[in-house]
Amino acid sequence: MAQHFIVIGAGIVGISAGLYLQRDGHRVTVIDERDPGDGTSKGNASIIAIESCIPMATPGVAWDVPGYLSDPMGPLAIRWSYLPKIAPWLIRFIAASKPDRVEEISIALRSLMLQALGAHKTLLKETGEPEILRETGWLAIFETDKKFQSYQWDLDIQRRRGVKFDIIPAEEVRQFEPSLEPIIRHAVYYPENAYAANNYRLVKLLAADFARRGGVILKEKVTGFDIGLNGPTHVNTASGKHAADSVVVAAGAWSKQLTRQLGHKVPLDTERGYHVTLPNAGRMPRMPLYSSDHSFVITPLDVGLRFAGTVELGGLEAAPDYRRAEILMKHGRRLFGNLDETGRSDWMGFRPSMPDSLPVISRGTRWANTYFGYGHGHIGLTLGPLTGRLIADLAAGRDPGLDMRPFRIDRFQRVHLGW
Ligand SMILES: Cc1cc2nc3c(=O)[nH]c(=O)nc-3n(C[C@H](O)[C@H](O)[C@H](O)COP(=O)(O)OP(=O)(O)OC[C@H]3O[C@@H](n4cnc5c(N)ncnc54)[C@H](O)[C@@H]3O)c2cc1C
């Protein structure tokens, strides 16, 4: 039966949920305090990372935590002042690093990835600009033999999950990607990956399509809900009350408090990340690159060359530390030689991250008219459209074509005895 859905959040996830719910005949209102795409979806690395099936926490991560605290400029850093708040999340993060959990998590991630690109294409077809999607693959590059040797562990998991890749012989790397300085010793090409020529415009295009189909987008801050006998009846904002039959929380890194008001506790936190974009870089790789040694991504966007990555556990309130963006540039200059930095822009965004690296894509178990789609961490652009489709499937009672248990909202509320 057609309903009125209110989706909170106009990032890649919320807008995609709106579009898929519309396809089922529902009336949809999206509410966001900012303009569509102006949250974390604005400045990511723009990769549709189909190869990504390895969680952030891997065996041995517990031994790395002291290093995260002592090196504020490392690829993963924890702010001391935030340690007491993030400690429960870190404990779960370390628990998720056990080999058998990593295996389970990688299976769950791969099940999503196999459907992720299809969902992008389905939505993009309707926007009039499907060519924004570039199916080039991406290249993981290694400057040291040591890093490449340790990467064999990653390749083994990827093999087990059926990820496609080609190891590029050292002498062919320069030919494969001529824009790089001759400092790369190894490379692995992943043909399944794609990217958007402009991640921000991608969300804007989808939002415009949503509005064209009768969707309403309100620029208001959601403060809470009126709860009736059968769940939320109204979504409350600073400007008033909006009646809804069902509610979708897709508020990215800001979803935790809203979720709590709807009866669930989730260990959501944020992995802050940075980017530098050079509109006139003067060098452009022919496809996105991943620096395995320093854990960041380089993407040839239509707005310039973007260096994006790093993880900072520092919460939603602390001011950005743009020295972290400068570190990305330092590596970028080494990889590409002279880069023109005129017009450079730096940015910081809040990845919405669950400690087990799995998103929440779920119907509420407290109230049947609540749905949750967030916590995608490093892969929210990749999985945004699919998450929208899965939420619509859950609402329609359709078979989503994959095991949804790993993504349940209440998975941390239960003792873990397998899914
Ligand atoms: C440096 C960096 C690089 C990344 N690179 C990639 C990549 O290459 N590929 C990839 O797949 N992912 C990448 N990501 C991750 C990706 O950007 C995120 O996972 C994704 O954007 C999350 O989308 P979202 O819709 O859940 O959240 P958001 O885009 O943050 O949207 C949430 C929205 O909710 C709104 N909101 C919150 N609270 C309220 C409220 N109370 N009332 C009203 N509105 C509210 C916010 O204003 C916001 O617009 C990267 C992230 C970073 C930081």
TrEMBL record:
<dbReference type="InterPro" id="IPR036188">
    <property type="entry name" value="FAD/NAD-bd_sf"/>
</dbReference>
<protein>
    <submittedName>
        <fullName>FAD-binding oxidoreductase</fullName>
        <ecNumber>1.-.-.-</ecNumber>
    </submittedName>
</protein>
<dbReference type="InterPro" id="IPR006076">
    <property type="entry name" value="FAD-dep_OxRdtase"/>
</dbReference>
<dbReference type="GO" id="GO:0016491">
    <property type="term" value="F:oxidoreductase activity"/>
</dbReference>
<keyword id="KW-0560">Oxidoreductase</keyword>
<dbReference type="Pfam" id="PF01266">
    <property type="entry name" value="DAO"/>
</dbReference>
<feature type="domain" description="FAD dependent oxidoreductase">
    <location>
        <begin position="5"/>
        <end position="394"/>
    </location>
</feature>
